[in-house]
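Cross-posted from the bioinformatics board.
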Amino acid sequence: AQSVAQPEDQVNVAEGNPLTVKCTYSVSGNPYLFWYVQYPNRGLQFLLKYITGDNLVKGSYGFEAEFNKSQTSFHLKKPSALVSDSALYFCAVRDGGNNRLAFGKGNQVVVIP
Amino acid sequence: DTGVSQDPRHKITKRGQNVTFRCDPISEHNRLYWYRQTLGQGPEFLTYFQNEAQLEKSRLLSDRFSAERPKGSFSTLEIQRTEQGDSAMYLCASSPGTTAGELFFGEGSRLTVL
């Protein structure tokens, strides 16, 4: 069964500094990897995904993520954080052979002005 | 707005009562998912439909839970004889017909069981 680990409960970063949210995964087959963001009282919004190809994928709102097969990681990054990036971020993985998307527990990101 | 819509947004009920949630997916999406999210946790998979066929069910989905998608469009999730442990946010998502496609989520239906 596929699973995701997001080791940090909360990530604090000063506005303008680089932001990294960590994610490691476990699947038996080829991984399909996703990042979602959840703002208060809003549904989960898709940010980006890795299916195949270039290990660095770019997504919405200036976010990007790097797929590292040897470390089974898919860390989310943003070069310069904004206060509006403060939200809950979820990493998710699907084994390429099934339809079930497994989510991590989420990371609260707090960007300090 | 042509996103995924869920109704009701919030339901408060007494233990033992039945509740039903409705989800209207994005119209051209043939895949529909139900997830459950509790405080401090990520969404947990409950069940998946492709068109009207329910193809996967989680072990989390006890006999008190049933989901339908009768015409391959909207879906309902019913919980019978609710328990306090059923209190959670129930999320619906839809996606187009590829396993590589991302899920589009609704804003959820929050259930509070007293």
